[in-house]
Structure formats: C-alpha cells, structure tokens
Design brief:
The protein has 419 residues and is α/β, with parallel strands linked by helices. Helices cover 44% and strands 12% of the residues. Helix 6 crosses helix 7, helix 7 runs parallel beside helix 8 and helix 12 runs parallel beside helix 13. The termini are far apart.
C-alpha cells in the first residue's frame, strides 16, 4: 500500500477511536477541568479518575515558540498529538548561557523575555489541545547549556571548580539553580495570566534531564542534591507532581539489581533509593538499548529491554510503590539494519508492556516516545524523530495505544461507579 493510502487508513482509525473511545474529549476535559495531577499508590489520578499517559517528547518547543514566525510548528505538533490521543508532552524549561541561540537564561538570574513568552505559548497551546506538559529545569548534558553552563558561570565568578560534577555540591551553583526554579515556578504566563505553579496544564516538574555524577558513583552525592532541590521545589509549589529525570540505573544501595544495568555502566545514580524520597512523586525510566548496547545483536538488545522494563515495574510495584513513567524511548533510523517495521514493532512492544502493567493495576502507567516533530524541521532531526504525517504506520501504533489506555480508564470508571 502506498504511503498516502496508509495515512488515509491511519486517519480513519483515529477518527474511529476518537468517536468510540472519546480519547480527545477526555484529554480536553482533563486539561480544562482545573484539577492537578495526583498519585494514589502506583496510579496517577486526574479529576478523581485514573490517568494513563500516552505522549511524547519535544524538547524544541520553547526554542521554536520564542520566534513568533515559527510558532506554527508547536501548534501543529500539539494538534497532531491530540488527534492521535496523546495527552502528555515533555519539554525543556531551560536554555542556558549567552552562547546559545535564543537563550532563556543568558546569565544567572537574567532572562530573555521573548524566550519566556515562547514557553508561555507552549503551555497555552498545550491547554488548548488538551495536552499536559512535563517541564524539565536543566540538562545533564551541555546541549542548551546544561549543568556545564552553571559550572562555567561559577568559575567565571572565581569559584574553585574541579569538574562539572561540582554542579551537585557547590553552594553558589546550587543557588543559581534554585533561583532558576523559583523564577520558572512563579512566572506569570503572558497569555493565560496564570502563574506556572498554579496551572494544572503542567503535569509535573522534572529536576534534571538524565542526571549523572561520575565524581561519586555510589549515588550518595546525587541523592543529597535531589533531597535538597526537591524540598526547594515543594516549598514554592506544593501542588504539582515532581520527578527527578532518572534514566533508571541501579546503584550501590541495591547491588543485586546492578545486573540489570546495561553492560557495566554506572553513572552515580540510584534508581530505588532516590525515588524513595518522600518529595519525589513518581519514578521514570529511559530506554536506549541501541545506544547503551550498540555492539550487541538486536536479539541481545531486545532481551535487555525486556529485563530492564520488567525489573523497574517490579521495583515500583513492591519497593518504591509509586507510578512509573517510561519517559523516553525510541529507535534510531541512523543505525545499521533499520527498517520502519522494526521501529513500529519496538514501539508496540513497549506499549504492550505499559498496557499490561496498567491493566493489572501495576505501576507502569504511561510512556513518552522520543521524539515528536512537525514537518520541515530538518535541522532538529536526530534519528529518533517521528513526523506523524510522514510515518502513518507508526502513527497507527501510537493511536492504538491511546485507544487502549482510554478504554482501560473508561472501564475502571464504570467499575468504580458500580461498586
């Protein structure tokens, strides 16, 4: 079947499941009902009903929206996401340093209003299309500034710096970061006139994208930092959920679990101990077998993914006892042997694991693929992007997951009503 024919078929499927599953209507109701996301044990709840996540990453949104001439890309992405039943987007609330293009924070405590208005637009458009957002405060990596930029700011001001890992321990750097958090939380949206900390369109805050700390592979330093920063977030905003941004690597407090880490990788994080902190509301895991085990066969990578996902589900079911979100997963077309059917099958397998857990009352209750893009964004392509109009079979896989999770939510609501 031609690509055009497949897109027509996928669009028809979307129409059917929206009509019969009320997927889009539920997303809009959740966003506009004025309720903040909550957790009950290992479930998310919204407006008193279970809330299952099928969504996407789109780190580029604030950047694109900071230029009014390119805001249509953001609108298009949310429109497509809503059409396919997606209900949560994860994106950046940072772009640090004067050396970056369209910075949000060119220097500590100094903000670019045009870029902040771009983030205002992202949140406003998300609400319009019934999508919630997870906003991350800083990057572990140097893309868009990240903790490396915070360290450089401190170095420029005479602080004795030994490595980028001083981000987690230097008092001046931690002060810069806390100030950024407070600035974001108390921002009054120029479009909606609602403070970010008061806006239920925001599903959750994320402390840092994929934190790593080679200076202390035991995980103790990162644990201390998360404890301090989580308390700071909650002191300003006690309404929104908070997560760390962890990839899921096991640490020193659970040596028997380190067998599940890819290869011998240790990055100074501790999945179980850190997520047990009372001010962390839910756990996250990322899945990049094609990067972490790049020298292994596809069969070995698939086996790793199965063990990785099931280990984290089990730990969140029995030890952490909080919801688990697969916050990043994807398959790159730049790797040898790639064909589209492999990506579709990979998405389908992750989605199946999520649905199976959710349908059995388990902790894994949602996933966000990396990453959604609008058409004609070639400079942002990283090999993992999904342009729905150009990938009708993948779009269908995504739509089917939305329909299944929405049906699960509806069936649980009926059961609650009957009891």
């Amino acid at each position: 079947m031609s690509g055009k024919g497949l897109f027509v078929l996928s669009t028809l499927l979307v129409f059917i499941f929206i009509q019969h599953g009320d997927c889009k209507g539920e997303a809009n109701h959740a966003s506009n009902g004025g309720a903040f996301a909550r957790t009950e044990g290992t479930r998310f709840v919204m407006n008193g009903r279970p809330f299952y996540i099928n969504g996407f990453n789109a780190y580029w949104m604030m950047y694109m929206a900071s230029d009014p001439s390119s805001r249509a890309k953001v609108t298009s992405a949310f429109q497509q996401a809503s059409r396919y039943g997606m209900n949560v987007a994860r994106t950046w609330a940072f772009n640090d340093g004067s050396g970056t293009d369209r910075p949000l924070q060119p220097s500590p405590g100094s903000y670019n209003e045009d870029t902040f208005k771009g983030l205002d637009f992202v949140i406003s458009e998300a609400k319009k299309f019934g999508v919630h957002v997870i906003l991350s405060f800083v990057n572990n990596f140097s893309d868009f500034g990240g903790r490396k930029q915070y360290v450089q700011w401190a170095r420029d001001r005479g602080q004795p710096i030994s490595s980028d890992d001083d981000f987690y321990s230097n008092a001046v750097i931690k002060g810069y970061y806390k100030d950024h958090i407070k600035t974001v939380l108390t921002r009054i949206n120029s479009i909606t006139r609602v403070a970010y900390k008061d806006d239920p369109t925001i599903f959750a805050w994320e402390l840092i994208n994929e934190p790593r700390c080679q200076a202390d592979v035991s995980g103790a330093l990162l644990q201390q930092w998360v404890t301090e920063m989580a308390a700071h977030v909650k002191s300003v905003d006690s309404e929104h959920l908070l997560e760390i941004g962890l990839e899921g690597f096991y640490g020193e407090t659970t040596p028997d679990k380190k067998q599940y880490n890819p290869g011998n990788l240790e990055f100074g994080s501790d999945f179980i101990a850190t997520n047990l902190l009372p001010q962390i509301d839910f756990a996250t895991v990322h899945i990049y077998a094609d990067q972490w085990l790049s020298g292994e066969s596809e069969e070995a990578q698939a086996g790793f993914v199965d063990r990785w996902v099931q280990a984290h589900i089990q730990d969140c079911n029995t030890v952490v006892k909080k919801p688990l979100l697969v916050a990043e997963f994807g398959k790159s077309y730049k790797l040898p042997g790639y064909v589209l059917q492999k990506r579709d099958a990979y998405f389908g397998k992750i989605y199946s694991d999520i649905y199976t857990s959710a349908s059995r009352g388990g902790s894994c209750v949602g996933g966000l693929f990396w990453q959604l893009m609008a058409p004609n964004m070639d400079t942002f392509r990283d090999g993992y992007e999904v342009v729905l109009e150009q990938s009708p079979t993948t779009a269908t896989v995504i739509a089917q997951q939305s329909r299944k999770l929405n049906g699960l939510k509806a069936s649980l609501a009926i059961n609650v009503t009957r009891t």
